[in-house]
Amino acid sequence: MEIRAIKDALEASVIVGEDKLDAVFEHVYASDLMSDVLAFGRPNSILLTGLATQQAVISAHIAEFEGVVFIRGKNPRDGAEIFARDNHLVLLSTELDMYDACIMIDSTRRGRKLEVKSSPLGQKTKELLLNRELYIEGNDFANAGMVSTEVKSLLKKIGFDHKLVRRVAISTYEGEMNVVMHAERAKVNLSVNSRLIEVVIEDEGKGIPDVELAMQRGYTTATEEMRAMGFGSGMGLPNIKKNSDELEIETEVGKGTTLKMRFFV
Q1: Which of 12, 84, 141, 215 lies in the 20 to 30 Å Cα band around 75?
Q2: Whole domain around residue 24: which residue ranges?
Q3: How far apart are CA 238 and CA 258, in angstroms?
């Protein structure tokens, strides 16, 4: 397929590379983990990602991709455009989420008209159903889990499928426990519409020095006291990744970490 076909199928805007839309690619690789892109991505591919950073573009270049499509209307602001232009990569941005973008591309490749699957709530619009701010205090083991319990309760009241609610609750609880164990405090934003549930946990804490290491199963910085209480097995972030459809981690050592967890309805 030509890159132009992706642009048209996703109704994407061109960030960089208007003159390269006729270039042909062979594969599409969708991921927010750049280590996976480097490990499994094939040359002459297009990267579909929600990680709107220069590192995503650099990873695509190193893996010999033709370009990058940023989902949810994202547009990198950290030098990615200059790097892409200097290294002859195409950058696009689409308002679609990861799932719909993949379906649209596959439908275009097969020469079929896309039919977007309706949500279990029987709605296709993206009207906001719920927006709630909650708060977590660090080292408050007595109340640990209360935020994730409230999130679970709110989603059950709306009427979401219990399996989806369970995944959201598990991911939120793992994030909540990370705050209790390793941060001073955090704000949790629960945003729900008929297509998407998003949980954002923004903490004030130590930050994560090595995200890839922290994503490894069994790696932990929990104290012996925390382990004695049954926490800190090193499964927090891997478990969040397993249960969420998309996971973004933004962190700065000495300042804090933001987890963005998304679940498609």
Answers
A1: 215
A2: 3-109
A3: 15
